[in-house]
């Protein structure tokens, strides 16, 4: 079976809670290894075949510092044969002009270096002006808005994990 890791900052409370819900949704039949993105190395990153990346949007559409600092190393890797899904958090009310941008920024980076990107989700039910995370009328991953739509997160996570199971384990 392919090794699957979920990469997120253990210190980013909302992202960590979302990651825990995602791991729980996979259930005990699937071995998902949590990895602290703040302690990530190239060797550790490459040791996984399937990768789930937690990439919340900071400020006005930026990557969190820990991902931003890893990007130069990441851009030097060859991710051919890797399957990557990205989830992130954003706030569509306070940041409607760059909602979930970090997911789009990271998706562009990993696709450019050979990864297969999976886990695109519908933009239906969201209300925002623009997002780098949108391509062909879909999000390039799962975007959760814990500030204004927290009640929808459980169903969004369940649907997303069902999709990922098909890509990662079938």
What's the name of the CATH homologous superfamily? Flavodoxin domain
**What is the domain total for the residues?**
1
The SS-based structural class is alpha/beta
* Topology, number of strands: 9
Could you tell me how far the N terminus lies from the C terminus, measured between alpha carbons in angstroms?
10 Å
User: Mean pLDDT score, rounded?
Assistant: 96
**Number of helices in the DSSP assignment:** 5
What is the CATH class?
Alpha Beta
Main sheet summary: 6 strands, parallel
What sequence of helices (H) and strands (E) makes up the elements? EHEHEHEHEEEEEH
Rounded to an integer, what's the Rg over CA atoms? 15 Å
Q: Examine the coordinates and then state which fold CATH places here, giving the name of the CATH topology.
A: Rossmann fold
| Residues in helix, % | 25-40%
Strand content: 15-25%
Q: Mind telling me which CATH architecture this is?
A: 3-Layer(aba) Sandwich
Spans of at least 5 consecutive residues with low confidence = none
Shape field: globular
How would you portray this structure in words?
- This protein has one domain (4-169): 3-Layer(aba) Sandwich (Rossmann fold), CATH 3.40.50.360.
- It is built from five helices and nine strands, in the order βαβαβαβαβββββα.
- The mean pLDDT is 96.
- The termini are close together.
- With 170 residues, it is α/β, with parallel strands linked by helices.
- The strands form two sheets. Strands 1, 2, 3, 4, 5 and 9 form a six-stranded parallel β-sheet that branches.
């Amino acid at each position: 079976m392919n090794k699957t890791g979920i990469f997120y900052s253990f210190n980013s409370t909302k992202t960590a809670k979302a990651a825990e819900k995602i791991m729980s949704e996979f259930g005990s039949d699937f071995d998902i290894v949590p990895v602290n993105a703040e302690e990530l190395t190239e060797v550790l990153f490459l040791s996984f075949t399937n990768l789930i990346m937690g990439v919340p949007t900071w400020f006005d559409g930026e990557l969190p510092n820990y991902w931003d600092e890893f990007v130069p190393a990441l851009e030097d890797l060859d991710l051919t044969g890797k399957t990557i899904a990205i989830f992130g958090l954003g706030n569509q009310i306070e940041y409607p002009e760059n909602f979930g941008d970090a997911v789009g920024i990271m998706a562009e980076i990993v696709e450019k270096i050979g990864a297969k990107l999976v886990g695109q989700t519908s933009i239906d039910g969201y209300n925002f002006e623009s997002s780098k995370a949108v391509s062909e009328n879909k999000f390039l991953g799962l975007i959760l808005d814990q500030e204004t739509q927290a009640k929808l997160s459980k169903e969004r996570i369940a649907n997303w994990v069902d999709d990922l199971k098909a890509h990662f384990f079938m």
